[in-house]
Amino acid sequence: MTRETTQNLKTFILRHKLLAAACTIGTAMLVMLTVRLMPPSESNIRRSACMVDGVAQLCVIAGQDTIVVHTDSVRQQGVWINRHWWWPSCDGRILTVAHPPRTRLHIAGGRQVSATHLMTMISDSLARLVQRKEVERKELDYYLKSHGVQDEGYTRIARYAGIQRKEADSIKHIYHLLKAFMMHDSVKMAQRYVLRVTWYDNDNQPEHTNCIPWVAEMSLNDRPIIVHTLRSVKPWGVYAVRNLIWGGVGHKEIVSVTLAPEDSVVPHHAIITTGRTLRGHRHDIPSLFAIDGSPVFSKHGQFVGIISHQEIIK
Questions:
Q1: Phi, psi of 55 (to 5 degrees)
Q2: CA dist 254 to 124, 172, 193, 197, Å?
Q3: Can you give the pTM of this predicted structure?
């Protein structure tokens, strides 16, 4: 066998090896994509839901300084979700919903106002509150000075006066900080969510972990948000949904997943409820099972979105 023949044979073998490797990789990718496109089972749908709780804070930020002017408690639901539909890429990502602060300060005559106007309204509201606290403090001080007998009633009022004095000082401090912040060129308002996520493991026992605080400029509308667990790892026993780019359209029959309380005696902590989509993004799922952040699937198991009040958002 000549050198040229040997070289041609080696080239032929190398080409076939490369072709075989390419076919193997292509087949593996095709199998993986086929598996990823298969609808989740009922068990997977149940294991996709989680509970998020914590606080939502309305913050004013000026440079590196931040003050919290309003705090709401948060207890709603969420769903574990992959970053990419074609790859298991959850990494501790949870899709839930963010609401504007539960305060009427952002509504004036039925219209939404700008962040600058909102800060002015908050400042004016704090000024009026400080004034009322000062009047209340003077009245309590006058009572304590003029009341000669230190009986049980006197002790209770003195204790109440001390609590009110600390509260008034705290409000006054926030008011002066806010006035100073409003003089800053880069002042802005933001929402901050500090949350904890709860899920159920393979033994149907609750597990908890904290999430990385989520901060963004304030929005006056409900919107979906993604928070990450501190370790950025998907826990064992949960299922992450796939957000298909063509999903969420045209489904009439849907199901929602709602987590029952931890002390519930139901066989499954995740309750599946059927419903239908209405005009637009609305739904007819009963409010008891339409918890904000609850995941919604088509009757074939395709992820549609999450619930926000009477709508399904994504």
A1: -135, 150
A2: 47, 51, 29, 25
A3: 0.75
What angle, rounded to 10 degrees, do the helices at 115-146 and 152-181 form? 150
- pLDDT at residue 60 in the model: 84
Looking up tokens 């709508």, which residue turns up?
311
Torsion of CA 97, 98, 103, 109, to 10 degrees: -90
Q: Which of 180, 293, 297 is nearest to 241 (CA)?
A: 297
Mean pLDDT, the chain, rounded, equals 82
Q: pLDDT band for position 31 (50/70/90)?
A: low
**Nearby residues of 272 by Cβ (< 8 Å), 6 or more positions away:** 42, 45, 46, 255, 256, 257
Share of the chain above pLDDT 70, in %: 80
Of 210 and 205, more confident: 210
